[in-house]
Design goal:
Helix 1 (about 10-25) packs antiparallel against helix 2, helix 2 crosses helix 4 (about 55-75) and helix 2 (about 25-40) packs across helix 5. The model has no long low-confidence stretch (mean pLDDT about 90). The chain is about 75% helix and about 5% strand. The protein has one domain. The protein has a two-stranded antiparallel ribbon. The chain has helices at about 10-25, 25-40, 45-50, 55-75, 85-105, 110-125; strands at about 80, 85. The protein has about 130 residues and is mostly helical.
Length: about 130
């Protein structure tokens, strides 16, 4: 399915995410936003089910930003040595922290859960690389 055949919500999301990616302040943000866009393109009907089911698009985006950035950080791909992030890794951690903070502000996760997720990711970062 190409972008011109996408359901309306998925096509709009892809367009918005492309704009965000093109104006993103750093490589990590661009990488995460592009991963979200590709996920929507791969399963556009699933994305629409979530949105039409009541999940606000912003909740979807920030949840995906947190999940994807955590996956990248836990992969060791952005470490210069065990437990030490490279510059993109530091940016990626900022993406994760921002996404978790926004999800807490949206009351998707509690402030305690957000703090615990941040702590656990930092533990994972220390042992990866």
């Amino acid at each position: 399915m190409n972008e011109h055949q996408l359901p309306n919500e998925a096509a709009l999301a892809s367009e918005v995410l492309t704009q965000i990616k093109n104006t993103a302040p750093n490589k990590a943000t661009r990488k995460v936003v592009e991963a979200i866009r590709l996920k929507i393109l791969a399963q556009p009907r699933r994305y629409e089910e979530l949105i039409y089911g009541g999940m606000p698009p912003s909740q979807f985006y920030y949840t995906e930003m947190a999940n994807i950035s955590a996956d990248y950080l836990e992969s060791g791909q952005f470490h210069i040595s065990r437990g030490i992030l490279d510059n993109v890794g530091i940016e990626m951690l900022e993406v994760f922290d921002t996404a978790i903070d926004v999800l807490a502000q949206m009351n998707v996760v509690s402030k305690d859960d957000a703090a615990e997720q941040k702590r656990l990711l930092r533990v994972s970062i220390k042992i990866m690389g």
